[in-house]
Amino acid sequence: MSEGPPGTSHALVRPAARDDIPALVILARRAFINDPFTNYCGDLKEALSNDVSTPRRQHLEIFYRMLFGAIIHSGGRVMVVAVPIPPKSDDGQSTGAERKRNRRRDKITAVAAWLPPHVRIGLDHPWALLRSGLVGAVRRWGLKGAHRAGIEYGSKVEKAFEEIYKARGVKETERDAWYLQLAATEPDEQGKGYLSLLVREAFAHTPSATFVLEATTEKSRDHYDHFGFQLERPIVFGKGQFDSSGYRAKGESAQGFQIYAMVKWTGS
């Protein structure tokens, strides 16, 4: 493993396994519980809480379970930062299987899910979504939320990247790039350099590639800027009905919110 930022010396970047998905779902829910676009898709009027289980919070977990499944079924690279957990002391009565599980225990602290060129998740490729629980997610979120996440988001982002690439005068399109579908760090583990480990791993995996993403907060936008992504264009959602945090609003506060189309161009 390459040397990472200070404080990450015991962390390992590895591919996610299928039995990691339950932990990844909880991590994503905790990280994105108050994300503006998540709030918008849920048509929320007030914040959800990681401390209180509600039907809407459960709907969020169902969505991320579907999303991780679709990423895996589509051939995406789901990489995690895993921090070893010291093994429990053995009293001599554990079975062989229990001792084996104890030796390999770790805690997933961050995840990055990348889609390779020409692979994207959307309603134009429904099979991966259907295999991953699309029907259940739509049933929980409703048609309005499904439309915002599956149609409105994709159409606005696609249009923005078309304009970005055209303005730059390159022959390639956004679909020729690696796409960061999702990146999240466990809230209690933020500030330890785990996102940096994941981004550096991706750059090392395909060093000559272009990478694209949409940052959904100013904080994440600034993080990606530090990694060499250029802010190319803000994209506005919910103007006239939602506030800057993605909650339903009226009047002057209903200014909508922005996400940020960003690109790390080849060689930059």
UniProtKB/TrEMBL annotation:
User: Which Gene3D superfamilies does the entry link to?
Assistant: 3.40.630.30
Query: So which residues are the signal peptide here?
Result: none
Give the region (Disordered) as residue ranges. 84-104
The protein's superkingdom reads Eukaryota
What protein is this chain from? N-acetyltransferase domain-containing protein
Q: Which organism is it from?
A: Heterobasidion irregulare (strain TC 32-1)
